[in-house]
Specification:
184 residues, little secondary structure, Pectate Lyase C-like, 1 helix, two-stranded antiparallel sheet
């Protein structure tokens, strides 16, 4: 656990010999369609304990990255590819994960409350002991996902196929689970 340790500033983090803050600025320009913009490719990056609050990673490539303990709250993470990344004990509250790809990610212990996850792909992800309270998990791909001990209170799981999902010990109080292919 990373309690008591400060988060790293993106200006002090490097990936592929570039400052993370510069990569994020170029990506912001990319998402705005500016000619000098460059899509962020943070594949394999060591981004553990990074302060990424409010970051725009929409359409970025972050495959196989190490983000344990990072703060991504209020970030625009829509259509971002996090496949195979480790994101244990992250804070991803009030973020936008619309259509993000989180296949085979380890998000154990992360806080993902009040987050928009519409049509996100969590297939094979580990969400053990995650707090997903009040998140919109509508039409999310969860096949093979581990949600043991997760708190899904007041989350929307409408149109979400729960077959093959391990929900042992999960808290589903006030969760909306109608219109599902398979109910827990």
């Amino acid at each position: 656990m990373f309690l008591g340790r400060r988060l790293r500033n993106p200006k002090n983090v490097f990936h592929a010999k570039q400052r993370l803050s510069d990569i994020l600025a170029a990506h912001e320009r990319f998402t705005r369609g500016l000619p000098d913009g460059v899509r962020a490719d943070l594949s394999g990056a060591d981004l553990h304990r990074c302060d990424l609050r409010g970051v725009n990673l929409r359409q970025a490539i972050v495959r196989g990255a190490q983000l344990d303990g990072s703060d991504l709250r209020e970030g625009n993470l829509g259509n971002c590819d996090f496949s195979g990344s480790t994101m244990r004990n992250c804070t991803i509250n009030n973020a936008d994960l619309t259509e993000a790809v989180l296949q085979n990610c380890d998000l154990a212990g992360s806080k993902i409350t009040g987050t928009e996850c519409f049509r996100a792909d969590f297939r094979g992800a580990i969400l053990r002991d995650c707090v997903l309270r009040g998140s919109n998990l509508r039409a999310v791909a969860l096949q093979g996902c581990v949600l043991t001990g997760a708190d899904l209170g007041s989350a929307s799981l409408r149109e979400t196929d729960l077959s093959g999902v391990n929900l042992d010990g999960a808290k589903l109080e006030h969760a909306v689970v109608r219109d599902n292919t398979s109910k827990p």
